[in-house]
Amino acid sequence: MTDTTTPQAQVGAPRLRKEDARLITGQTRWTDNLQLPGLLSVAILRSPVAHARLTRVDVSAAREQPGVVAAFSGADLREEWAMGLPCAWQVTPDLVTPDHWPVAVDTVRYVGDAVAVVVAEDRYRAADALDHIDVDYEPLPAVVDLEEAARDETLVHPDKGTNIAFDFHETHGDPEAAFADADVVVRRRYVQQRLIPNAMEPRSVVVEPVAATGSYTMHSSTQVPHFVRIFMSLITGIPEKDLRVIAPDVGGGFGSKLQIYAEEAICLALARRLGRPVKWTETRSENFQATHHGRGMTQDVAIAATRDGRVLGLDVDLLCDMGAYLFLLTPATPLLGRYMYPAIYRFQAHDFRCRGVFTTKTPTDAYRGAGRPEATFAIERIMDDLAAELGVDPLELRRRNWITEFPYTTVVGLEYDSGDYEAATARATELFGYDALRAEQAERRARGDRVQLGIGISTYTEMCGLAPSRWLGEKGYAAGGWEAATVRVLPTGKVEVLSGTSPHGQGHATTFSQIVADALGVDYDDVEVIHGDTATVPWGLDTYGSRSLAVGGMAVLRAAERVIAKAKRVAAHLLEAAEDDIEFDHGTFRVKGSPEAAKTIQELAFAAFAAHDLPPDLEPNLSAEAVFDPEVFSYPHGTHLCAVEVDTETGHVRIRDYVAVDDVGKVINPLVVDGQVHGGVAQGIAQALYEEAVYDAEGNLTSGTLVDYYVPAAPDLPEIRTDRTETPATTNPLGVKGVGEAGTIASTPAVVNAVVDALRHLGVTDVPMPCSPERVWRAIQQAASERGGTPPSGAAATPEGGQQ
Amino acid sequence: MPRITMTVDGRAHSDDVEARLLLVHYLRERLGKTGTPIGCDTSSCGSCTILLDGAPVKSCTLLAVQADGATITTIEGLADGDGRGRHPLQEAFHAEHGLQCGFCTPGMIMAAAGLLAENPDPSDSEIREGLEGNLCRCTGYQNIVRAVRRAAGALATTQGVQS
To answer: Which end of chain B has less Cβ packing within 10 Å, N or C?
Structure first.
């Protein structure tokens, strides 16, 4: 045997990322980097109007432009599609699903809807030729406002007869009685503004055909290469076996690349027609129009409670902006959030209604958190408002109502397996200096300080690790929620891990290597993680919903365990011992009681490969596949506290401190977890303070570029102080939960609660998001005029500058 | 077509280009310098930042012809050598987990190189202000600030040894 020293445990260690070496040196494989012989460039003409009939789309002049190879209208390409772009989640039996062609055929329904395509020798000539496409738009009325859309006066899809895509209603317990019995009822309307995800890498698609065999390789900047392969096959009729999809380096997604996009279908169809490789890469401004948006929801929420602060019932009525079509998960996104409205509280009754409405805007879909940030915002905001109504500290109100015993079945029927809200809150308040800040706040209020201090609380939980396949089936989703992995020990003892879930920044190569290194007892550096190519990793359900570790990581672990089981049989055979007498520890198999009789896993891998002397029915390799289908979700939770200083004269908000204590179960890599929390919190703060997709009444996206839509830069964001409590999940062998979305889910209400808390003594009960200086200032003015008093000294002056 | 000459990452290039060709497209598509990515079309995101005669510039804001005669350094040439070496900023971004998806990283590192050339010992707020023209969607900037601080320290030590 080889003498080995016991390696350090990798799980839990802050290993620096394997991914970084290429990314920090520019040796990357973004889709747009790809160059192929004869590669053509695709440009797309997009509708400049929100709603119009296309009475003429003439591409003939474009075809004559220098360097142009082809140009097509939507009608020209119609025969390419066996079906339109899919919606995979039938949220109600009568869900209205309009046809959604990759290129509009007779009507455009949002600014950015594709009208025609040009293929040229390079991107400059393709863009030039767009100017030579002649289109007659016969204007139709835009419908932008959600309530107006719900009245069905202007229809986005007249053939459907309604703008209501679905009307979902569910009741748990007896909400009517709960509200009738309540001492206190608080009603609020909150607005979740539309957001534009803005992954830093614009989307890009490259399709390379082999004309002789009718086969195609697609590179796409996608979170879901396996989904793309299946749906592209269905849309174009190209047999799945002839289509290989590769997601190479992908520069961020946040849900915006969890989609089956028109441009993927367009490029595939063009490669088929022309028999030549094509590339399309979106500009950022194109991304603003043609990549799906997030959020976009009006929330009417009511909470019923006793005078001593015990919550009884929760009533939620949502009006959700679908945009012009249903994309892959458009209607499901708000409904995924529905389980999270009761959050961590012991509600007995809950009424939930959610309507999705079509508007003449870019379709919405999953954006980091997908329904759960919206739900968490509503419940955490109204808990603060209820606390104010009852005159109790908002933290104390939460403490009186949160769940303390696990497992606990919530009013909507989810079983929370684990959690410790008290511990996370205790740690957060200690780090934050909660009592001292409350004292300072009281002092500033008493003094009438121009700059007021606000403290915001968010004691969130979320459901992640999408998802049990059986549950998905019951809810009307077309696919399952399992994940697949293969682990193979190569003849030389190095290890390859094939993962069906592929990263776009999350660090799978690092964390999966840590899991496998510990499981097999091999060096961390000896593990290579392979992903994102349907030819090398044929099985997978891809990356979204904080599932990669909680579902994909479990598949990896299970495959590693199968490798060990197989190696144990080889060891028993070679060491001439019974399998039950073989012990495995840190990469070495030993015979119980005879520690000198041992084989390392590397030795066994070579022995299996050589196959000179194996048990009769054992295949000659140490390789195993596994699929993990979770039985339940995982439930990370935590307490986020935010302190803001609000200038009551200018409305300017400054985040003074932000503390995030998260419980994500067992931590594989604390560096990666902290990074996910930082970035998640940043995106939540961005919704609270900075970002909004603005449409005018005609349906023009007026926040149409990065100049007009404020993605926060380094000076706009605070230092985030993180810590953790660790309550292992009881529902998976590693005890992990999920962390990718937690920060975003938690932070938005923490920030807005802080802003409102700073101003509550002035009569302010809400500030619409984003809480720009202007909106904060207006909220102060409005509260003052409603009270018949005067705003704080100097605050009546007109603020300078715009929103940012 | 105008003929331009420039030195990119230590190699001299001379090419005929369309007058309207953006520098970043010249770098990426003519020279194969795909380490420098393009993140927007309004010079807002900074992903395409390179050093032009030592100063950080967004290479999407410049025509290739405007860089005629210039010496350009991209992320691929920041460290000496053949793609194996690492500049202290590259080391620091790795050591501090200053990147996730990595798309903004080349621009962020090049902007930071420009910042440190001007201010070798910046405070955290000076780092944040100095990188204002570079957007990151993954990290919340926190570990980027730490990385730049760490690199400043490493560079100061190196220069201290040299002088």
So the answer is: C
